[in-house]
Amino acid sequence: MESSNKQNEKEQTENSTPAADRDIVDSILHWMAAIVGILCLLLIAWLYRPWIYDWVTPDPTVTPTVATSTPMNTTTPAPTRTPEPSITPTPSPIPLPTSIYHWPEHETIDPLPPGFVSEPIILNESNALVSPDLSNPQWIPSSQISSQLGYNFSEEYHATFGPGAITWQMDTALPAGYYEIFILDTVFSSAGTLDFQVKSGDTPLAALTDTQRVLYRSSQGETAQAQDMWQSIGVYQVPENNLLAISTQWEARDEYTIVAIDRVLISHLPDDTGELLQTLPQSLGTYILDDEGAKIESDTYPVALTDNRSWGAKSTVLINPNYQTKVTWEYPDLIPLGTYEIAVFVPELNGNAEVNYQLYANGQLISHDQLEESISVVQSQYQGGWFSLGEWTVPLYFSYPVELKLEMGVNEDSLGEVAVDAAAFILKSMPEILPQ
Asked: Within 13 Å of residue 76, how many CA atoms lie on the same side as its CB?
């Protein structure tokens, strides 16, 4: 009973807490919750402030602007440029291919050519068109001749008594220009004469100098041949774009006129060759020997010059030589009997000494047609061209044909420069009793 009373007293005590106090506590709690909520909202608003600003701010109304033309300064038109004609570039000339027959150094040619040689080309009979073929038994090779004579030949060649023909032909076209062509006359196994033809493509070319006939020397002749020698068949003006060919043919021969075929030499001459040849007189044949083919005997060292107008683009000068100096042009070929005009070329910038000239036939001094044995000349009067020494007639009592030799000496007490260049043997006429 007593415990029941105590329980009731407790409940009455709890129930006796004022209601006003409970309301105050609840109110405080509500405010605190509200304050926390407001702070959270403010924090969120601060974090999303840019987005909220764009969201709540209306787009500004764009006021349309009426376009107005802005006045511009008037531009003065530039002067009209007259178009210049288009220049078509000139194509550079395409160099012609080099021939496989090109010889690198003319000083190594054996035997040495008798005159000016530039850009030499050598064609061998083994590269030529030969009829009958070189395998035919009628041909005697130089190796067989060598074993019979006990003489060694530096180059191979072939000889025959039978009829035949040969054509040496270039493998490439030559540049247009002037060329001198030489035929090799072997010291053995060649004699008699051969006539040569030179063609550019199908067009025959005429020799501007010499003749196209070769009279072969012989080791058994009256004026015996001592070594192989080159014989010129003339200077030719060769057009471009065609192959050059040199040919000859012959009938059956005997032991005194055996035919030997060997090498052909082609030399490119300077561009002014044609002009210099035109200043020489007309003739039946012109035989020119350059200073490179001259024999100089002097105690003065010869000076080679290449910077002046001269035959073959070069000359030789002797400065203040003594009067015992002697220069000899001995034409290596036998040439016909007849009347010869002799002309000598003096370079444009050199040569002012007084010199004298004499002509020999087969080693014998012969007189000028004016009955003088020596012709005296002051070289400075004839610089830059040919000058004529006059004419000599080779007497008929000489054997046919003949060796001609021009000799130049220096007059005693003559000072200055002695020019040595080309000598031309110009055949003017032949006796009627001799073949033309």
From this structure: 1
Q: Does the pTM of the predicted model rise above 0.85?
A: no
Question: What is the CATH code of the structural domain delimited by 285-429?
Answer: 2.60.120.260
pLDDT single digits (tens) 415-425: 889 999 999 99
β-pair partners for 396: none
Give the DSSP letter string of 170-208: -SSPPPSEEEEEEEEE-SSS--EEEEEEEEETTEEE--S
For 259, residues 6+ apart whose C-beta sits below 8 A from its C-beta are: 159, 160, 161, 164, 190, 192, 194, 250, 253
CA distance 285 to 212: 10
Dist CA 347 CA 379 (whole Å): 9
Instruction: List phi, psi (to 5°) of 342.
Output: -105, 130
CATH 2.60.120.260 residue spans of the chain: 106-269, 285-429
Under the banding of pLDDT at 50, 70 and 90, the label for residue 342 is: very high
Q: Which residues of 252-264 are buried (b: 16+ CB within 10 A; e: fewer)?
A: ebeeebbbbbbbb
Fold of 106-269: Jelly Rolls (2.60.120)
pLDDT band at 398 (very low <50, low <70, confident <90, very high): confident
Q: How far apart are CA 170 and CA 199, in angstroms?
A: 11
E strand or H helix that includes residue 274: helix 273-278
Nearest partner of 227 among 145, 148, 151, 126, judged by Cα = 151
CA–CA separation, 324 and 301 (whole Å): 14
List b or e across 155-174, with b for residues whose CB sees 16 or more CB atoms inside 10 angstroms: eebbbbeeebebbbebeebb
Tokens of 311: 């035959």
157: which 2 tokens?
């060649």
Nearest alpha-carbon partner for 194 in 118, 264, 120, 103 = 264
Number of CB atoms found within 10 A of residue 140's CB = 17
- Cα separation, 348 vs 386, in Å, equals 10
